[in-house]
Queue: 2 jobs
Job 1
Amino acid sequence: MKKNYMKQEKLDMEGDITCLVTKDQWLFSASYSESIPIWNTETGKCVGILEGHSREVTCLLVAGDVLISGSQDQTVKIWDLKTKECVFTLTLDYVPSSFAAADHLLFIGSMDNLSAELINDPKILTCYPEK
């Protein structure tokens, strides 16, 4: 019988981690920082940093080939995971705290709000692939 073992690896993250999401061999982390480090899950090394928010990142979601981030700066940014560039910014009048995605809809939750944003701009790449 094959046994499964969990390898414990401490990543060199600073501050309190508020959100973690993965895509293939990448781990994206959010903390009380404006940036989003990209970690290689096989090596444990930081391989890049997404920068663009002006306040703390509050939530993350991977959808297809994009990463969606929300921040205390009241914006949602959509990042192309191939180029690591921000391809779309949505300005809100509240701070996003969580995301869910379905088809072309991005659901954005906050302390006292739930909204659904239609994301169908072709420049956003493969955010929500057609079925």
Job 2
Amino acid sequence: MPANSLTRATLGTTWALCIVGCILVLVRLYFVARRVCSLSWDFFWIVISAALSLAFQALVEVITQKGAGKHLDEIEIANILPITHLFFKMFSLGAAIACTAKLAVVALLWGMETPSRHKAWRALLAGIAVCLIVIGIVQVALVETTRAQIVTLADLLNHKSIHLLSDSYNFAYFFGAMSGLVDVLLTVYPVVLVWTLPRARSTRIATTILIALGIVPIVAAIVRTVALHEMTTGTDVTYNGAKVLLAFSAEYGSTVILVSIVPLGPIFLESWHARGTSKRNATDFTSYPQGMGTEVELVGTDSEKKHTVKESPADGPDFAKA
């Protein structure tokens, strides 16, 4: 891909994912304000991810203006060190966003669970959450420590003077592999869960298709790891580094969007079905799983319906009542 095309792709993709994700977060916040649904832990993590993604996007603007996405021989020497420092900052921020977005998925699945299900399932989710937190903290600590050792351009050229550089890169490969594995588990698990719930077959199929889109973060994690290898083993740091940023954005951005769509889906479906109730019995669409500690129900007759929110005490705190 030509350098200018990579710069445009980086800006366009990161901005598009950031805007769509933030819009979905605001839409969900609107429904919370209208008492259609309540706040829960998955929304808490998604808000953090969206806020961090805005900071990431600001750094994308700065680093592309300095030359990220261009080949190294096209960049002024004075900009190479600042770009490198920004790359390290964005790797730390990207790792933090990826972890918080995946924690939102864990919280969402935890909310979809019912008390009658086997404890092993929740133990799996808890283990994934702990793993995400630990590897996220270690990754950020290694990257920031490595960045602090790069003071001059000579330090950047002489890798032997940067003691933790190889450790940081090696752990980044491990982080990428673990991110992909977690994405696989968080994609397969809800599909199994949905097909064990007492829902209509069409609802199960639609939910499975939606959840299957979780393959996007998996592919992005693989691409990010490959791009990181190209960056660390090659000499064109500014060009290959932009690929890493693009993959980071695709990974956490698609996760934020998917986690936001799943709880909103039943609300939109309910509104859609409510328009055609003259030909259907209202009880056909009595309840939709929110996956966020609530159920939204239609009660009343065909001519008079209203929303009520039933809280599920086993699925975490209700911040809306606080």
